[in-house]
């Protein structure tokens, strides 16, 4: 018996050694800290219309995505987040859903989606869907029935009488303005009433005070989770509720004016949205949704994650992590690196933006970092192309979850989409062929740049739904794959690095070494790293011994494309010269 245990013990020890020898990061795998699949995942957001077109109609589709899942694997991505793929008339490109239970035909069929899920499963890539419960399309059956006062659906949306003056002229119930400009109320002759819409008039808001609507939303979540998706990004959560009009004598009150200069009564910023945003009821609704995710997760013993998207202030944003009896979301989107930084931001601003989120976030919850999405200017355009690697280092090496918008890994730039080809409703609603560019989201939605071929390898069509961005002949995946140094190569190095415990589990400390140089330290036991970036336009010499226990030599693990340093070069902790835009990941030598 004693002999048996010795043999078993030896087998165990031997197999551990063999296992770690096989894995490239084997030496880190014996760190015994349990993490759920999502907690330090790399997520990759795909805008399906613009990723890959498989059938040559100029519009990206599901089979296109499936055919490129290996690319995601190659990047080191753990989960992909798909912008809406549900049936939609596409006034807001899928953020106006007409049938939540079916796939937009130009994107493919349910079988195509199941095939995508299967392939992703084989590659161990999780699939997360974008769910838009705040509003449907005005072409959904539900809305059509509601506008015809169908008994069951009558109360599914927010209907109000407007005003009628002596001359028979109509006006909306109150002064509320839509995020896409102009009145948030649209008159519906069939019902002789106005309906409320936070976004475009083709996006009527659901009435979340109707329990039947809430049940339906939970059913939609269940339906897709049952199909095998790993989670959902729940869109615009802080807009679910408007104030309870019964408290105001049965009429929705006007919102006060902000008094901001240069804004007219058609502009969203003209009003203080005290009655249409961030209402208390939201937090309970989010946790009711979360229960649906958890019920299925517990049954299957596999966590399904709920991500929430809300454009709001930091205190409200972190409330979505849950508090008290409210469970909240696994991942409330952190838009700090987008919202708090711009072209003029320096190292101190970066430190401030990062620390701010980490400070407000509940201590035990995971942070997440986002530098781009389908609504916001790309990093290369919002800051400058030379800072692409630095921002990928932030996203991938700060503590928590990394979320990359497709194309940021190769440093894509905003495309140019002239007024005549503009599709984004937010831009079209300006009715302004000059200034539309300030709000247009089309430039960040131009086709993904795969190669220097026709339409950048995105589509075989003669025209694509949005024009391909200029410069794709040089800036594309194929070129960066074959280059020795490229953003793509840096990105892959970073996703590889972040497997190490120092980045997955390690502690964090940061400094603005001067107004141009931001640096942070990550460490776990005796494995210590410094990520340092000169975001200024001039050369600097910095002293990294400003960090505790950093001294002697450090070795380069990754460097920005234009850096003169490469892997395994040594640098001096107390004297590090950094070129403008240079960003490095350094490892302490022990
Ligand atoms: C937020 C989405 O990110 C945006 O693209 C969309 O236009 C609005 N929600 C409306 O659904
Ligand atoms: Mg297509």
Automatic annotation (TrEMBL):
PANTHER family: ALPHA-AMYLASE FAMILY MEMBER (PTHR10357), NEUTRAL AND BASIC AMINO ACID TRANSPORT PROTEIN RBAT (PTHR10357:SF179). Residues 1-23 form the signal peptide. GO terms for biological process: carbohydrate metabolic process. It is an enzyme of class 3 (hydrolase). This is alpha-glucosidase. Keywords: Glycoprotein, Glycosidase, Hydrolase, Signal. It holds the Pfam family Alpha-amylase. It catalyses: Hydrolysis of terminal, non-reducing (1->4)-linked alpha-D-glucose residues with release of alpha-D-glucose. The keyword Nucleotide-binding does not apply. Residues 45-445 form the Glycosyl hydrolase family 13 catalytic domain. Its EC number is 3.2.1.20. SMART domains: Aamy. Belongs to the glycosyl hydrolase 13 family. One of its GO terms (molecular function) is alpha-1,4-glucosidase activity. InterPro entries: GH, GH13_cat_dom, Glyco_hydro_b, O16G_dom_2.
